[in-house]
Structures are given as structure tokens and as C-alpha cells.
Amino acid sequence: MAENADGLGNHCSLSFGEENGTRVFLWCSPRTVSTALSKCLSFIEGMEVWSEPFVFCFAASKELQAATGQDAPMELEGNEAIFAKATELMREKTKSNVITERIVFSNVKPRLESSKSKHVFVKDMCFALNEKTRRYLPNGFRHTFLIRTPERTLHSFRKAYYDHCMLLGLLSGKAADERTYDLLENCKLMDSGYHIKNVYDFWKYVREEIEPDPIVIDTDDLLNNPREILQKYCELVGLPFSESLLQWDPSIDICKTWKQCGDDQIIQMQSFYGRAMRSSCFMPPTKPVPRDKLTPDVIKGIDETMKYFEEMYQHRLKV
Asked: What DSSP element (H or E) covers 224?
């Protein structure tokens, strides 16, 4: 299979479908119902689900930078002491049994490429990627995208991240007051693109370097029309669709089978994943919070990123 300058395989040269198996990335920003979609697709026979392998490499580097002023290297070999510290920090942050080998960027590609499962579905966040880390994308994977309006995602992410950090006692001063907490100032994972421009930038990269028209799903379309959107998505990426995907077991047991940075990571981060892990179907979206009820940091993020969402929205999957 031919590779481009970043070492990325051209997935268009592969045959995707139920007979050959599938290899699919779903790229998104936080709070797009991506965890519920991952749970839904987990019930496809032969499916292996990965939860944010690049995100937790990125988060480890951020935690290390904040604690020591040092960026995490891309390779584990020769940097074992540095990654031991990063592992310690990530275990504190997640309250999970984080495994060192799983928070190293260069390890993601060979781990994914070595999977023997019939179907592999990877949910990940675009803010974990940049020009330096894109080289670790695995070959043979289709890249698809999930978007949602910034009004919904930023308000929801702010609440989830604040609640998680407060639960762990990680906030103090103004940051510990929900009224004065600020996404840009107090969230280590946030940047000026508010996660949404990261999705846009990677979408543009995929269009230019990998495939000209990658699949884009809008979350509210999925919630309003789950049968139609799911059936079309599965058809396009080569996953088998059945009516059983519209109603699934509310138990969290299947989430425990996902590939994570720590085997109990998703279970420990209830503020982020709890509701989705206990879901059993897609429900219609609730009414968005009125603008005058949103906090100033969220309003700023909406105004900065709406144009990126709107452009991608024009390319969304329609049924």
C-alpha cells in the first residue's frame, strides 16, 4: 500500500466491507454523543472498540508539561523514567490503572495495525493530533467525523470537565467557583480552537491528503433519525447494520471491553462517560441552553468556532 509523506496509508486502495472486515476512525470533539455511538456499535459481532488512544497520549504530555515543564517524548525507549512520571500523573488525574505503554504516541500505530479483530472502531479526538503526531496514524483505516453545534458541546464539556476536576480536588481559587471557571484559563486540554477548530483542521487535512469526501455525521441528525443515519453510515464504511443497533443493553459491561489507556479508565471518569455508558438507545436532543444563560467563556468559544462547524455541517451525511 502506498504511503504519503506522513507515512499514512491510502485507505482508498483497500476494500472495506463486512467480508473483509473494517477499520474505522470516528473523529470528533468532546460531548458529541460519541461514547454512546461507540457503545451502540460495540454490539456488532466481531467488533473491537478503542476509546481515545491518541487523547490520552496527548493528555499525558499536557500533565507532564504542567508538572515538570517537559514535553513527553514520542518514543518510550530511552525515556522510561519520563514516562513513569507521566503515568503517575495520569493515574492521579483519572484515578485509573493507566498503563505506560498506552500513553506513548508512537505505540498507537503498531497496536492498532496489529489487531486481528474482524471490525475495529476507534473513537478519538482531533485536538490530540498536530503535524508532529499525525505520522502515527495507522494504515488501513477509514477516517470519519462526528460534529455537533458549539452551543451544545462547549456548554456540556465545561460542566463535565469542571465536575470531574472538582470531584478529584484539582481546582482551587477562582477555578473552583463554577461562575468564574474559564475554559481557556483552567482546562489544560483546551486551546484557542475550543476543540472544534481541531476537528475542522483535521477534516481539511483528510480531504486534501487521504480522501476527498470523508463521511461527516451531525449528532443531532443521528439523535433525530438514528435508524436512517446509522444504516447509511454502516453501509458506507462497511459495517453490518441491523435493527438491534437501535436498542441495546443498558449495562456498562460492554464498555469494559474497550481498549483504553487503563483497563478501568472509562469506568472511573463518570463525569464524562457515565450517562453514555448507561445508555440503551438514542434519544431526541433536548432544547439547547439559551445564549443568555451561558457563561461568558462558552459564548466566546461559540463565537470563535461557529464558522468551522457550519462549513462541516454543509458536508454532513444526509438521508
From this structure: helix 219-224
Look up residue 292 and give its amino acid.
D
Whether residue 249 has pLDDT greater than 50: yes
Q: Kindly provide the b/e burial profile for residues 149-186, where b requires at least 16 CB atoms within 10 angstroms of the residue's own CB.
A: bbbbbbbbbbbbbbebbeeeeebeeebeeeeebbbeeb
User: CA–CA separation, 135 vs 225, rounded Å?
Assistant: 36
Residues 6+ apart with CB under 8 A from 98: 56, 60, 87, 90, 91, 261, 262, 265
Which amino acid belongs to residue 129? L
- SS3 per-residue string spanning 64-131: HHHHHCCCCCCCCCCCHHHHHHHHHHHHHHHCCCECHHHHCHHHHHHHHHCCCCCEEEEEEEHHHCCC
Amino acid at 19: E
Over 80: is that where the pLDDT of 4 sits? no
Contact indicator for 171, 186 with CB cutoff of 8 Å: yes
The one-letter code for the residue type at 204 is: K
Of 21, 25, 11, nearest to 211 by C-alpha is 11
The whole model's pTM is what?
Answer: 0.89
H or E stretch at 151: helix 150-167
Cell 471490525 locates to: 119
* Cα dist from 268 to 82, 85, 169, 232, 318, whole Å: 24, 20, 15, 33, 36
Alpha-carbon span 223 to 211, nearest angstrom: 27
Instruction: With beta carbons less than 8 A apart as the criterion, state whether 166 and 176 touch.
Output: yes
